[in-house]
Structures are given as structure tokens and as C-alpha cells.
Amino acid sequence: MRIENEKKKAVLVSAYASRDEKSAEASLKELERLLETAGGETTAILTQIRETPNCRTVIGKGKCEELRDICENNGAELVVFDCELTPSQIKELEDSVGGDVQVIDRSMLILDIFAAHARSAEGTLQVELAQLKYTAPRLVGHGREMSRLGGSASGSIGSRGPGETKLELDRRRVRSRIASLEAELEKVARSRDVIRRSRERSGIKRCAIVGYTNAGKSTLLNRLTEAGILAEDKLFATLDTTTRKYTLPGGRDVLLTDTVGFIRNLPHHLIKAFRSTLEEAVFSDVIIVIIDASDPERDNQLAVTEKLLSDLGAGDKPKLYVMNKCDAASDEEAIYSLTSLESNSSICAISAKTGEGIDDMIAKLEETLGVGRRRVTFRLAPNDGGIIAEVYATAENVETEYGDSFVDVTADADEKLCGKLGKYIVKE
């Protein structure tokens, strides 16, 4: 499915329980923006309050008839459901709506946007893998022509063959391509690991810039490093990770990495395909969480970001929360009162677009990078080479002084190292 250059007219559909009305409205607004990013145009929105979705068509029979009339009256070619549809539901809905109207779900739309915006070779491979894994189980009913089977040994003239149906051949090709893509991405992942280990040996601290899509991550990296990344007011404007070196005012170099944006109900296969890219957050020393201060949904968006970080195994990393677009926020006090933030969290407000608050953010970043470190002196024996090497590998600003029968190693060490080598500490 590709719609970015066709400006297809679409009808958005949502069925939700009465208790979920507020979140459903926010999700529909986001779906409308996703459709716009993909190049589509919303002509109508159909909603239904249902405590449980219809197992065949999600919405009820009467709403299906209403949906068919809306499509006919508005010339809609596309129907987008704000939920995940099963193959049988897609078929039932397309049969119910009739004509040439295509029915897709939220995940399909997001995958299409990723396919349109992927630029690097790795990004293209990741998107194709996610698309294939998502669509493979949906070959049945995915278009009316796919439901016709052929190739039976006892079938009519013209349909005899080796015994494999067209659908089975399609599935075999998909499985083969998935295996090929996974092998290629495994090579990319190994290459990324080599680069990562090289960065670890360099001792340079790594900061991952994460956040909800369109929160301003790329704009911030451009502001700090002149990275030249495409930064547009669109969802998922950039997908490929970019890493740049930045020198802090104190003279310390850090690596800043821009990552792919998060979104609610991000397709599972997309998370798996982009795992090596998203793991930049896992292997970072500090996570810079960008939040759109001007978006009334910022609290829910932060909750989505926090959950995805936790799922990736990066939930316990030191974080700096950056309220971006503060120049466009209507309530300055509200941007500091996010309910999901702990009271001791490091937080600042900036405008990556104008540069407002950047100096304060950098100062807080320096503080966050030093969290848990203290200046200590370890007194070691000259033959404690392994311990000395460990201090050099894990601590910062290491200085060594040799005595007649000892070696004093002074460094900025974290709590883990201080606890491990506590018996050697002679000065703090």
C-alpha cells in the first residue's frame, strides 16, 4: 500500500468503549496526522461506542452500512481503522463497503510512512522486514484475487501443476525474503556492535535523544551540532539514526544520537525490525527525553516513551527530560507538571527552534552525566595492574601518582566502582 503521492480520500474509523472516549479522540487526531503524512486526505470520521468490538467487522452491521454510504458520498478510496485488524476482518469490511475501497489499519498506515521515509540501506531493510512480517499472515483475504487457489493435481484443465497454490508460493517467497533480510540485518547489527565497542574504548560518553515522534529530536541535534538532518513538522520525518560529537562547555566530548520517534500502538514487528537502531538508547550513558511542551497530549506521549524504553531495557538509565517547543506552549507552568515524572527528575524547558533555554539544558546534561560520580583516591600495590586498568576503563579524569611501595590512582568514580574497590579508598 502506497498513497503518499496520490492524495487518496479516506474515511477514518474508530470503535471504543465509553470509558476510553478521551484517549480515543486523541488517537483519532493522531491517525489523521498520520494519514496526512502518508499523503492522504481525511474526508470523514466514523466512530462507534462499543464495549467490545464486533469479531467480524469491529463496528456493528448498521455502522458498516453507514460506512458504505459515507464512502460512496465522499468518493473515498480508503478506509483506515484506528486499531489492528485481522485478515478476516479486512475481507469482511471490504466486502461490506464494496466497490474498490481499500481497508487498512493503523499499523499498515505507519508501515507505509516508514517505507516512504526510509533513506539509508539499513532503514530500508528494516522497513521491508517489518512489512513482510506484518502482511505475511494477511495474504488470505488481502485483496479478492488472493483468495482464489489453483494448482491442484486433480483440478480442472489449466489448473494442474506441482501441487502448490499461488498462495503457498507467495508465502514461500515471503518466508525466503524474510530470512534473507534477517541475515542482512544481522550483518548490519554486527557492524554496529563493532562501532559501539570502538566508542566504548574511546571513553566518550554517549547520549541518546529519544521521544515521541515530531517532538523535535532532529531539530535539537541540528541546533547543537549542525548535523543537517531533515527536520519537518511531520510525524516520522526522519527514521535513520545520526550520531554527532558535541563538546560540552567543560571541555568533555559526548556523542549525541538522534533516534527514531515513538508513537502509541507502534507495530510490534516494527519495534523488532528497528531493535538494533533503538538499542542506541540501551547502550547510552544518558537518555535525553524530548517532550513536546505545546502538545496537550504530552503526558500520554511521555508515558508511551517511558514504556517503550522500559520494554527495550533502558528504563533505569539516567535521564534528562527536555520540554521542547516551550515558545509555543500555552501554559508555561503546566509544562513542568507532568504526572509521570518523579519530583527529583532533572528537567528543563527549551526551544530547539529558537535556541531558548539551550544553555540551561547543556548545564543540566553535564550534571546528569556526572550523576553518582565522586572524586576518590585508590591506594593500590604496584602489581595491581588489573585493578588499575579497571579504574582507567570505568572512571573519568584518572590521575596516577607512584610512591615507593604503592600507586595512588585518583579518579571520578561511580558508586558501583567505589563499592567494588571500597577497601582501597584512602581519600575522598
General description of the model:
This protein is α/β, with parallel strands linked by helices. The chain has 4 domains: 9-115, Rossmann fold; 118-183, no CATH class; 204-369, Rossmann fold (3-Layer(aba) Sandwich), CATH 3.40.50.300; 373-427, Alpha-Beta Plaits, CATH 3.30.70. The chain is built from 13 helices and 14 strands. The chain has helices spanning 21-38, 61-74, 87-97, 106-117, 121-135, 166-202, 217-225, 268-273, 275-278, 298-312, 358-369, 385-394, 415-420, and strands at 9-16, 41-49, 78-81, 102-105, 205-211, 242-247, 253-258, 286-292, 319-324, 346-349, 373-380, 396-402, 407-414, 425-427. It has a 6-stranded mixed beta sheet with strand order 6-7-5-8-9-10, sandwiched between helices.
**Stretches where pLDDT falls below 50 for ≥5 residues?**
141-164
Strand arrangement, major sheet: 6-7-5-8-9-10
Q: What percent of residues are in strands?
A: 15-25%
In the CATH scheme, the class of the largest domain would be: Alpha Beta
Rg is: 27 Å
Number of helices: 13
CATH domain fold name of the largest domain: Rossmann fold
CATH superfamily of the largest domain: P-loop containing nucleotide triphosphate hydrolases
Helix share bin: 25-40%
Counting DSSP E segments of at least 2 residues, the number of strands comes to 14
